[in-house]
Amino acid sequence: MQLPAGATRAELWGHNKKVRHSDEELAALAEAAALEALLLYKQPVTRLPALHARAPLTTMSILMCHELASLAGIEACVRLQELLLDDVPAVDAGDAFARMRELPELTTLELRGAHWTRLPAHAGELPSLRALHFRDCPALDVDSVCAAFARSTTLRSLRVEAIVDRFAIAIPPSIARLASLEELVVTGVIARVPDEVAELQRLEALELAGGTFATLPDGLGELRSLRRLKIRSKKLTALPRSLAALEELEELEVQAPLKALPSDLELPALHTLDVRATKLTSLPTALAGRAYRMLRVPDGVAARATAK
Q: Which of 40, 186, 193, 296 could form a disulfide with 274, with the two C-beta atoms 3.0–4.6 Å apart?
């Protein structure tokens, strides 16, 4: 395999897209001194390829490399900022996080289709991690995530996403331990939203999508920094009256069999309202008579949408 001189990105595709490269062929990456991004897809590698010692690698994506047994060598990528691991079943969670702990600039970690059931306690020791995203990890115990990152002061975003209406996701009371969170996104089959979600006082964005939860915590009105709220449930028929206290809320989206919103809901900062997928027949007076950047309501609901 030959890389152009000065190449900043290498994408090595397997299966039917491009030739499957052997471990020996991947050795050419060691000559790529300017490499900034690396993608490995369905490669029959057992270890990570050696990279140029001075390569300014900031992004690495490893997808469906089923024979990869370890992330050994990733410690040398000291400038790595974003890492995606998608369906790498032979990689051990404890060993992987121990190696990622040596990456001082890693800010974003996304795990897809992981077979891990629990995160090791030392997972929360990644020094600069700000965003932790799980996608289609049906065996994941979210409580272990909360336990591992309970002492983290850097984690700002947690996303636990599954195929909606297929995988069950339990939000544990221990979610309150992630006090530094500014964004929480959970999608899947959610049966219950614990009261402890309302203890995440730094939240600016909250998305709970999918499942059959019938109520939301009354304490959501205490999330005074909340700017974006998205809710989707098959059984939610009412929103907490406490939402009236969310004076910073700018975006509200609800997909649920709601028949009414709290009558005293004003939300002075609101500029985006999407309640099209509800059973509302009207809006509270304060919401119906204002201008929006974007407004979606059920047919027949009187409201106006103009520039705001």
A: 296
Q: Name the residue with tokens 């991004």.
A: 37
Provide long-range contacts, Cβ within 8 A and 24+ apart, for 214-219.
216/240, 217/193, 218/242, 219/195
Q: How far apart are CA 287 and CA 268, in angstroms?
A: 9
Helix-, strand-, coil-residue percentages of the chain, each rounded to 5: 20, 20, 60
Q: Are strands 9-13 and 157-161 parallel, antiparallel or unpaired?
A: unpaired
Q: What is the pLDDT of residues 207-251, one digit of tens each?
A: 999 988 999 999 999 999 999 999 999 999 999 999 999 999 999
Where is 294: in which H helix or E strand? strand 294-296
Q: Which residue pairs from 88-94 have beta carbons closer than 8 angstroms and sit at least 24 positions apart in sequence? A: 88/62, 88/64, 88/114, 89/115, 90/66, 93/118, 93/119, 93/120, 93/123, 94/120, 94/122
Express each pLDDT in 259-308 by its tens digit: 999 999 999 999 999 999 999 999 998 998 888 999 999 998 876 544 44
Residue whose token pair is 């449930």: 233
Do 193 and 217 touch, CB atoms closer than 8 A? yes
- The burial class, CB within 10 Å (0-12 / 13-18 / 19+), for 17 is exposed
pTM listed for this prediction: 0.93
Instruction: Report how far residue 197's alpha carbon sits from residue 218's, in angstroms, rounded to the nearest whole number.
Output: 10
Helices (H), the chain: 93-100, 142-148, 285-288
Q: Which amino acid would we find at residue 285? A: T
Q: Where are the domains of the chain?
A: 1-155
CATH class of segment(s) 1-155: alpha beta
Bridge partners (DSSP) of residue 83 are 60, 109
